[in-house]
């Protein structure tokens, strides 16, 4: 194993140790445009099931909107007013294999031949309907899409930590009321998207009061040889 390989692994572990759910950020410190574009790019490039990319990032910098969100977000009282950047992760509701959205993705984004698109649509539709039973309800399909947003979320949190930027993922909000705020602001088409999760980014105002604690490796890893 090369020295560079070992150093890189240690840098990554150090980033995980550095990252914590920051409750209050220093409002005087702002993330540079270049650094935040980097964080967003790691989310955009993240994997998703079937490569469907059923997500969208809303970057909310308008403080009036943040104040409205704060009123319906019990878990973001310290973060929403102080974070340098706030991202709301939206999950698609229209990500069925034969939907206009997915068909456009396959044909015009991935630029696949018509015969390949037809075969993939059939196979992916079977996966969604039969294997994962995603067509049993609208909520099942939306929850599956929401899972994909968490892959992007995790990658963005890690990418931020690697360059010394703090973050806090947040589920502490009333989904219906956040949806209403975004709809009233003209930021959400509820026919196509739903709210999945939020994340605040910035620089901590103080060091965490406790050291990071996790279950032991033996408690969370089981090897089957």
Key attributes of the depicted protein:
globular; four-stranded antiparallel β-sheet; alpha+beta; 225 residues; 48% helix
Your description of this structure?
The chain is an alpha+beta fold. Helices cover 48% and strands 12% of the residues. It has 9 helices and 4 strands, in the order H-H-E-H-H-E-H-H-H-E-H-E-H. The chain has a 4-stranded antiparallel beta sheet with strand order 1-2-4-3, with helices on both faces. Helix 2 crosses helix 7. The radius of gyration is 20 Å and the shape is globular. The model has no long low-confidence stretch (mean pLDDT 96).
**Low-confidence spans:** none
Number of helices: 9
> What overall form do the CA principal axes indicate?
globular
Helical/strand content category: alpha+beta
Average pLDDT score: 96
As a percent range, the share of strand residues is 5-15%
Q: Between the first and last Cα atoms, what is the distance in angstroms? A: 25 Å
Number of strands: 4
Output the helix-strand order.
HHEHHEHHHEHEH
Percentage of helical residues? 40-55%
In which order are the strands of the major sheet placed? 1-2-4-3
Compute the gyration radius: what is it? 20 Å
Biggest sheet features: 4 strands, antiparallel
């Amino acid at each position: 194993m090369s020295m560079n390989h070992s150093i890189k692994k240690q840098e990554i572990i150090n980033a995980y140790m550095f990252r914590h759910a920051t409750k209050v950020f220093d409002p005087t410190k702002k993330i540079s445009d270049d650094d935040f574009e980097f964080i967003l790019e790691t989310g955009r490039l993240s994997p998703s099931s079937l490569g469907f990319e059923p997500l969208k990032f809303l970057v909310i910098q308008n403080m009036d909107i943040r104040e409205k969100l704060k009123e319906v977000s019990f878990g973001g009282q310290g973060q929403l007013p102080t974070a340098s950047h706030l991202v709301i992760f939206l999950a698609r509701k229209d990500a069925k294999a034969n939907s206009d959205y997915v068909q456009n993705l396959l044909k015009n984004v991935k630029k696949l031949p018509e015969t390949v698109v037809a075969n993939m649509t059939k196979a992916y539709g079977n996966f969604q309907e039969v294997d994962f039973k995603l067509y049993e309800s609208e909520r099942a399909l939306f929850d599956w899409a929401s899972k994909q947003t968490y892959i992007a979320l995790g990658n963005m949190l890690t990418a931020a930590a690697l360059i010394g930027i703090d973050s806090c993922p947040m589920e502490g909000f009333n989904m219906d009321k956040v949806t209403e705020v975004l709809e009233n602001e003209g930021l959400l088409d509820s026919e196509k998207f739903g709210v999945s999760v939020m994340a605040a980014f910035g620089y901590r105002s103080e060091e965490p009061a406790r050291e990071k604690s996790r279950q032991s490796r033996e408690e969370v890893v089981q090897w089957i040889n």
